[in-house]
Each structure stands twice: as C-alpha cells, then as structure tokens.
Input
Amino acid sequence: MNERFPYGQDANAYIDKAFEKIKETYPWATKDMFGKAYSYTIEEEEGKMVFVKYIKQSDDSVDRRVIGSDEDRFIKTIVRDNEWYIEKANPVKDIYELPIGGVDICGWTLERYEFRSHILGGYSSMIQAGNRSTGGSREFFIPPSFLEGTYEEFLAKYNDMVPGVFVLEKEWLENAQELKAFLGF
Output
C-alpha cells in the first residue's frame, strides 16, 4: 500500500468504500442499483497509476475520464455517479405536503414542499419552485441518522443539510405536528 492508493490498486476496494458511504444515506441500497453506464478502474498512464472512470454513451461509444491519483476524489466520484440511480430505485410510498406556498425565495415562488417516505425505506424532501418563465425541483434524501434523536434535533440537522433558501422556519416546523407524526417522532 502507498499513500496515493491506501486500499491497493484494485478499483473494487474503492467501489466498496464508496458503497459504504452510500449506505450511510441509503441503507437499503444494493450495488446492483449502480448506474450500468459507469465502470471504474486503476490504470497506468504515463508511468503513473491513476483512477479512471469509463462512461458508456447511448451510441455505445465509451468516454474515458482520468480522475487522477486522489482516492478521496475517486470515491466521491463513484458516490455522485450512482446516487441518482439508487434514489430512483426506491419509489415514493407516501407524501406529506407542507401546507405552505406562495413563499418568495430569491425571486422564485415556492410551489411545493413535500416530505416523502419510500417503499424500500427512508425519507426524502422535494422542493419545487418557479418564476414566470421557468421552474425546477430538488430532492434531498434524509440520512437515517437524522431521525435517531429528537424531532428538534432532526429539524436542526435537516436545516443544516439543505441550502439556505430551502431552510424551513424552526418555529413553524416545531408546530407542524402532522410532519412530526409522518416522520415517526
């Protein structure tokens, strides 16, 4: 082992480390949920060993990207590449929509703010906002560790996780008994 490759030069060891990180937020995840278009390896390039990601395109061509020799960056790349696939493999079971709307967030109108439970387990939130010409939504999966303490501790962790414009007023949330029950507190 060396500093640049602390888990050796078999890419599977780094994929396993990435999977451990994924399981922190998605404990129901399995490796077969990973995106099929991605593969990872460690190769020699110009006399140095480097982390490499291959991406199979829709036309069956393959794009090769050198990640470099930073194992932390390689592991984070594997996690980022596969989060979407893992999230999509766990459909929504129930939805609790926060009874708010019409709130201005940086020139956009907050249209929907939902908390969702999922069939394979876990919770997420989905926020949808728009202005007169465009809109979008963002989903945040909630790590199970957020649900281990009190409801007030959950609220603090949740508001730290979401970007500032999506933070919910603590006073309002403390009185949201339906949300508290939905999340199992």
